[in-house]
Design goal:
alpha/beta; two-stranded antiparallel sheet; 10 helices; 9 strands; about 15% strand; Competence protein ComF; ComF/GntX_DNA_util-trans; PRTase_dom; PRTase-like
């Protein structure tokens, strides 16, 4: 039995793989949160919006109907609801730069991305990296092979400080760093990010890949919706 400490409360947590995980034959990533800490967060289950992954209804939500009018939906999946507990967690991780939390959900994330094609990380701006000292997406998804195919140009105002209208009006800021021939070595790209709010960032990333010549399918996965 492998016993380590929970990254949420520092209590002991059993990190031994389950029989189900062993039989699946996939890469094993052991839990980093104890059951009590994990229970603080509301996982998304049941019906979800097929566009953004919002919990509660299988119909396309009002936000995604607007995206649908502008083109194809991105089809995002997410693990957790953005409630008070998760808001506090993401603030501690990103806002306060508490890197100890980076692998809190890696076992759950890995299980969701078994057949997700090529994983492309949504990058941080260089100034945010300088402040935190780490890339939050690389941390969250660190147990997986991520392709650094996108670069994000600096923006005048951070997304977290913008209201909804300002987020939606944010201009394209992504540059694709690899040629079309490299992109098209895969048929499916899954963009990975921490939080889906308006969808503007993910749609910009998808549009940049398509404009660079990618001809396959682009979907998305976020920790939180």
């Amino acid at each position: 039995m492998m016993v380590m400490r929970c990254c949420g409360c520092d209590r002991h947590v059993d990190r031994s793989p389950t029989l189900k995980a062993l039989l699946a034959g996939s890469k094993l990533i052991a839990p980093r949160l104890c059951s009590s800490c994990l229970a603080r967060f509301k996982m998304i289950t049941g019906a979800t919006c097929p566009g953004c992954g919002r919990s509660g209804d299988a119909r396309i939500c009002a936000d995604c109907r607007q995206w649908e009018q502008q083109g194809r939906l991105l089809h995002n999946r997410a693990l957790f609801v953005y409630d008070a507990a998760m808001k506090q967690w993401i603030y501690q991780y990103k806002g306060l730069g508490d890197y100890r939390l980076h692998d809190a959900f890696q076992d759950l994330i890995a299980a969701q991305l078994q057949n997700a094609g090529t994983l492309v990380a949504i990058p941080s701006e260089s100034k945010h990296y300088d402040v935190r000292g780490f890339d939050p997406i690389q941390g969250l998804f660190g147990g997986l092979q991520l392709q650094p195919w996108l670069r994000k140009s600096p923006t005048a105002k951070p997304q977290a400080q913008k209201n909804r209208r300002e987020r939606l009006q944010t201009p394209q800021s992504f540059t694709v760093l690899v040629p079309a021939a490299k992109l098209n070595q895969t048929k499916q790209i899954t963009l990975v990010d921490d939080l889906y709010t308006t969808g503007r960032t993910l749609y910009h990333a998808r549009d940049a890949l398509v404009a660079a010549g990618f001809q396959g399918t682009v979907t998305a996965f976020t920790l939180i919706r």
